[in-house]
Each structure stands twice: as C-alpha cells, then as structure tokens.
Design goal:
By secondary structure, this protein is an all-alpha fold. It has one domain. It has helices at residues 5-17, 21-33, 35-66, 68-91, 97-100, 107-116, 118-131, 138-163, 170-193. The chain crosses the membrane at residues 40-65, 142-164, 176-193.
Length: 194
C-alpha cells in the first residue's frame, strides 16, 4: 500500500460524505422515491465524479489552471444550474411525496450534475495536486474515489429514506424541501466563492 493512499482515502471519505449539491439531491430523491430508485443516480454521480478525477489527472487540470476564464465560466454555469435546481425544489415544497415521485433525479441528471458541480472540480484538482504520485497513479485515485463515494452517497439516500415517514405531513415536507433548497444554494455558492 502506498504511503499516500491512507491520507487519500480519508480525503475521499470527507469529500464524499460532506454535504454538497449532489448529496442533497440524493437525500431528497431517497426520501421521495426510495433506495431502489436511487441506486442508478448514485452510481452515475459517483462514476462521473471519479471520471472527472481521472480526466483532471490526465491533463485537463493543467488546462484549467492555465485558462482561469474557462474555469470561471464552468463555475458560474454550475452555480446557476444548481440555483435553478434549488428554486425548483423550493417551489415544489408543498407537493406530497407521491406527486413528486414522477420527477426523479435520473442517471443523466446525476452524471451531468457532476460536470457543472464546482465542488467536484475543486475536489478533483485538489486530489491530483496533492495525491497523484508515481506510486499512486491517477486511475488508482479515480477507482478508490469511486469505491469510497458509493457508500457515502448511499448513506445520504438512506438518510432521506429514514426521513420519509416524518415527511408524510405536508407541512413537514414543505419545510424539508425548502431547507434542502436553501442548503443546495449555500453549498453551490460557497463552492464558487471559496
């Protein structure tokens, strides 16, 4: 085992389990649709994030560092898209769980969210800058990140599922969705402003 693998595992654990836009959307999806329906978006989001680590390590990170305007445009597009998702979640706050079940956070949405999620790009650049060594190649980092991210994001879905019983009350559901929308806004904008 490489001496930098354990610190990377700890970093990946913290990056994957900490609240962020994707985790919050998986939490809401789990609450509204259950675990089975959440498995595909969880895998798509984690695989896309691992792929971003891989392509950043293959050289895209250098391109982004050399072209700060491109990085800034990507960040703004991501924050605006996440803000739109937060607004939709906030507006749908009063809908009962069975009515929102048809509005699933699908595989395509989960994977494409990673492309515009500022937290994922910041994390990928940090991973490559700090942990990529000849003894720990980029594809190892991406694979380990995927293996760690899957159960972490699954925990967010389970947290949502656990809260579903409490969310049967329209008032509780409204507060839950509004809180998640506000947290989504804060997480997106804090990543941009960091």
């Amino acid at each position: 085992m490489s001496s930098s693998l354990l610190p990377f595992i700890l970093f990946a654990l913290v990056a994957s389990i900490s609240p962020g836009p994707t985790n919050l959307l998986i939490l809401a999806h789990g609450a509204h649709n259950g675990l089975r329906a959440s498995l595909a978006p969880i895998f798509a989001a984690c695989a896309a994030a691992a792929a971003i680590v891989w392509v950043v390590g293959l050289g895209l990170g250098e391109v982004l560092l050399r072209h700060p305007l491109a990085q800034q445009v990507m960040s703004w597009v991501g924050v605006l898209w996440l803000s739109r998702l937060a607004w939709q979640l906030f507006r749908a706050a009063g809908e009962p769980l069975h009515a929102t079940a048809r509005q699933r956070f699908g595989v395509g949405s989960a994977a494409s969210l990673q492309l515009v999620n500022p937290k994922v790009w910041l994390m990928a650049v940090a991973v490559i800058g700090v942990f990529a060594t000849p003894g720990l190649p980029v594809w190892h980092l991406a694979l380990v990140f995927l293996i760690i991210a899957l159960p972490c994001m699954g925990a967010w879905a389970l947290l949502g599922i656990g809260s579903a019983r409490w969310l049967r009350s329209p008032r509780h559901l409204q507060r839950f969705n509004q809180l998640l929308a506000l947290l989504l806004l804060v997480s997106a904008w804090s990543a941009l402003l960091a």
